[in-house]
Amino acid sequence: VQAYCLFCKSKKYVYTKKHATLINWILSSFCSIILSFIVFGDLDFKSVLFLSVFIAISEVFIHLRWRISVICHECGFDPIVYLRDPEAAAQIVKKKLQRRSNDPANYLKPPLKVPIKVISDLKSERIVSIDRLTPQQKKLLRLNLAQKSNPDSKRDQQSNKREAMTPSNIS
Ligand SMILES: [Zn+2]
Which residue of 58, 132, 141, 150 is 20 to 30 Å from 44, comparing CA positions? Predict the structure, then answer.
């Protein structure tokens, strides 16, 4: 199923299947019956053991496939880790984005739509997607990134998990 990363809005494909289904049970039963005839020469009660092994293997495979498909391949955002420990998820994303900005293969790709924390004059803080910024805000953001060391900057480029990001992270 096609989905979008909750963090950077990149497209990704997610497997909705989390566990072994009826099809897997039928296939596993079929395989264990065949294996039973090969090993015992007959339908043996011991082939139930084969069935449980086949089911266990397919269960592990399906679950791993689902688990890996949930993670964003662009920014590394992992919703399951995020639910359990937002700070840990933020660290993973930070590392992944750092690696991404160092990878020459990504130099020509369009920048990721990492959410921006907007701090207005009234000290109110908002987290918005890059798409929602006005052209003026975008200009300010570019200025802000250009002079990141300036402490007077009104807008802080941060992820929605309150980790500081360097300008290279969004390029
Ligand atoms: Zn992402």
Answer: 58
Q: pLDDT > 70: what percent of the chain?
A: 65
One-letter amino acid for residue 31 of the chain: C
Q: Which residues of 73-91 are buried (b: 16+ CB within 10 A; e: fewer)?
A: ebbbbbeebbeeeeeebbe
CA distance 126 to 118: 5
Q: How far is the CA of 97 from the centre of ligand 1 (A)?
A: 10
Ligand 1 centroid–CA 50 distance in Å is 40
pTM greater than 0.85 (yes/no): no
| Residue 85 CB partners (closer than 8 Å, separation 6+) | none
How many angstroms is it from 78 CA to the middle of ligand 1? 8
Cα 26 to ligand 1 centre (Å): 36
